[in-house]
């Protein structure tokens, strides 16, 4: 065969187009637009889009709220309880000031605060409630930002000299007291008499009211000068323990031995992970389970994409056969339906991300509006410990949600697209 005949043969042979050519996008776009006789298929595609959008939005919102809960609770629990606790062993902690100074010299330690702690019954004009009395010095109380930075009324000036106490807003409401009013503190560890130990009751003026934002702490903690607490609980010259605050709470494991060495006395050192292991483990388990459950929403939407595309392939059998006879390759047909299904998944994922982001940024306003609209309290601080609904979007976690939704949507298109590419033009046109 001469060169001219070879050229003619090659010119007459059908040549495949480049992958994802313009005509493939055009055909996929036409398949996505509904016609009167394709309304049912378009409805399925709409439900698939809505399912993916709502699934992604729900995942983003729920994971953000779970992260917000963990961050808020962790910040408030560690903000008032410290990252490590040093307690005495065998002998009372009478040398708490030198021990605290030595611990503060450990690299990574911000502050070491000696305290006296005991339980008591707090009484006011409106009722009684159990409280946790903690005695600290004025200088140390000012080094607890969660308390010193959230004083709603009064001040910590002359806290040591005034013999006043600082209480939380919820405790003040429950007891019906305001700044300057007296609260009575009752402790079972009172004076020792020939008849036994008698309870000790003493009234203290309210010198400051703080609001941490965690209802459990705002209604439980009462701070008083450490000398007064020592006298009230019969612990003259002693401290219950030393709260240690560090730069990074996640690094307390490596600092524990350093703190024990700096204490230079028999002491038992525990960190926040040991003291709250059950609570934070439960939060982590709940977070993982919620992620798995909500992923099923996206999976169901992806299955809708499969059913919708299979029906579309059956409905477009004649069109596929015509395209094949005029030169479209199997790869082109497969890519057309890949684009059709993946477009639903991509647009639905992107819309779900935008919806979730908007809700997360305005979640507290939305909660207040829904509470006002339904005349119910959707987020009771007494049950959820926090006074507001938190939401914290983690970029890595959000990206993983988006990637998961896109991968599921893409996988859902593979089988219908493969079936479309395998369609025999002769069989499709036989009964047309």
What share of residues are in beta strands? Answer: 15-25%
How many separate domains? 2
Q: What overall geometry do the principal axes of the alpha carbons give?
A: elongated
Uncertain segments: 1-14
- What is the distance, rounded to the nearest whole angstrom, between the alpha carbons of the first and last residues? 40 Å
Helix content: 55-70%
User: How many distinct helices?
Assistant: 19
Overall pLDDT confidence: 81
Q: Which class of secondary structure composition applies to the elements?
A: alpha+beta
Give the biggest sheet: 6 strands, mixed, barrel
Transmembrane segments: 40-66, 289-313, 333-357, 399-418
Subcellular location: Cell membrane
Membrane topology: Multi-pass membrane protein
Domain ABC3 transporter permease C-terminal: 291-425
Molecular structure report:
The protein is of the alpha+beta class and 432 residues long. The protein has two domains: 206 residues, no CATH class; 175 residues, no CATH class. 57% of the residues lie in helices and 17% in strands. The strands form two sheets. Strands 2-3-10-5-9-6 form a six-stranded mixed beta barrel. A hairpin with a 2-residue loop joins strand 7 and strand 8. The two termini are 40 Å apart. The N terminus is likely disordered. This is Lipoprotein-releasing ABC transporter permease subunit. InterPro entries: ABC3_permease_C (IPR003838), Lipoprotein-release_system (IPR051447), LolCE_TM (IPR011925), MacB_PCD (IPR025857). Its main location: membrane. Belongs to the ABC-4 integral membrane protein family. LolC/E subfamily.
């Amino acid at each position: 065969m001469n060169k001219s005949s070879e050229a003619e043969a090659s010119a007459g042979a059908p040549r495949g187009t480049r992958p994802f050519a313009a005509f493939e996008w055009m055909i996929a776009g036409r398949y996505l637009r509904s016609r009167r006789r394709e309304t049912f298929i378009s409805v399925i595609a709409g439900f698939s889009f809505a399912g993916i959008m709502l699934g992604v939005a729900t995942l983003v919102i729920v994971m953000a709220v779970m992260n917000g809960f963990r961050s808020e609770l962790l910040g408030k629990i560690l903000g008032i309880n410290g990252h490590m606790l040093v307690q005495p062993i065998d002998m009372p902690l009478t040398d708490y000031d030198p021990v605290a100074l030595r611990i503060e010299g450990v690299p990574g330690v911000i502050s070491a605060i000696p305290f006296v702690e005991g339980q008591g019954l707090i009484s006011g004009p409106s009722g009684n409630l159990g409280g946790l009395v903690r005695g600290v010095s004025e200088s140390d109380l000012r080094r607890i930002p969660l308390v010193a930075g959230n004083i709603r009324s009064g001040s910590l000036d002359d806290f040591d000299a005034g013999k006043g106490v600082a209480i939380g807003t919820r405790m003040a409401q429950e007891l019906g007291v305001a700044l300057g009013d007296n609260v009575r503190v009752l402790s079972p560890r009172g004076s020792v008499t020939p008849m036994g130990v008698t309870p000790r009751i003493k009234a203290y003026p309210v010198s400051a009211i703080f609001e941490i934002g965690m209802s459990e702490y705002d209604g439980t903690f009462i701070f008083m000068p450490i000398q007064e607490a020592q006298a009230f609980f019969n612990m003259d010259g002693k401290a219950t323990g030393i709260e240690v605050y560090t730069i990074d709470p996640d690094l307390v494991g490596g600092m524990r031995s350093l703190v024990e060495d700096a204490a230079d006395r028999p002491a038992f050192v525990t960190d926040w992970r040991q003291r709250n292991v059950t609570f934070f483990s439960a939060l982590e388990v709940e977070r993982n389970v919620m992620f798995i459950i909500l992923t099923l929403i996206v999976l169901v939407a992806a299955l809708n994409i499969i059913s919708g595309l299979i029906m579309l392939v059956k409905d477009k059998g004649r069109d596929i056969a015509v395209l094949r006879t005029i030169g479209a390759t199997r790869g082109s047909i497969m890519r057309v339906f890949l684009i059709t299904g993946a477009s639903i998944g991509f647009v639905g994922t992107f819309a779900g991300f935008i919806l979730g982001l908007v809700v997360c940024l305005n979640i507290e306003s939305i909660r207040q509006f829904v509470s006002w609209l339904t005349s119910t309290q959707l987020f009771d601080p007494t049950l959820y410990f926090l006074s507001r609904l938190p939401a914290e979007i983690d970029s890595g976690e959000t990206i993983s949600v988006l990637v998961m939704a896109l991968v599921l949507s893409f996988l859902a298109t593979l089988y219908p697209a493969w079936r479309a590419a395998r369609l025999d033009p002769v069989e499709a046109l036989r009964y047309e």
